[in-house]
Specification:
By secondary structure, the chain is mainly beta. It is about 5% helix and about 40% strand. It has one domain: Metal Binding Protein, Guanine Nucleotide Exchange Factor, Chain A. The protein binds zinc ion (2 copies).
Length: about 130
């Protein structure tokens, strides 16, 4: 059992059960719907996900996909696709209160990865920000 929620706190949820899969997705749809180069998703049986506070709004995506988000702050929370993934739900890992407790196992949809992501680990990195002159 783990809890999570959206950025503004209107939506809270719980997950339970063993993840069926846990992947970082690089597809173009995830990029466009989140504004991020990749999204980590924990796949669970649908009854392993329950909204405990507030309500999710849905936007219909490609091929029967339903992307669910907080209507107040826009945080993407869940993905359901009754045709492609019947009985399952994907939950955005980074919305968990303790995402560090769930490590993803694979990268998927690399065919649509933004090319510069591949070398991003080679850039200079800073614990916070680069030093100011
Ligand atoms: Zn919210
Ligand atoms: Zn994706």
């Amino acid at each position: 059992m783990a809890e999570g929620g959206c950025y503004c706190g209107s939506v809270r949820y719980e997950i339970s059960g063993e993840p069926i899969n846990h992947a970082i997705c690089y597809c173009r749809d995830c990029q466009r719907s989140t504004g991020a180069p990749s999204v980590a998703w924990i796949m669970l049986a649908q009854d392993g996900f329950s909204v405990t506070k507030g309500e999710l709004k849905s936007v219909h995506g490609k091929a029967g996909a339903q992307r669910q988000f907080c209507a107040d702050c826009g945080t993407g929370i869940a993905y359901i696709n009754a045709e492609m993934l019947p009985g399952m739900v994907d939950v955005q890992t980074a919305t968990l209160d303790a995402p560090e407790e769930y490590a993803p196992q694979m990268s998927i949809q690399l065919a649509e990865q933004i090319p510069w992501v591949k070398d991003a680990h080679k850039m200079p990195g800073f614990e916070r920000f680069p030093p100011m002159e």
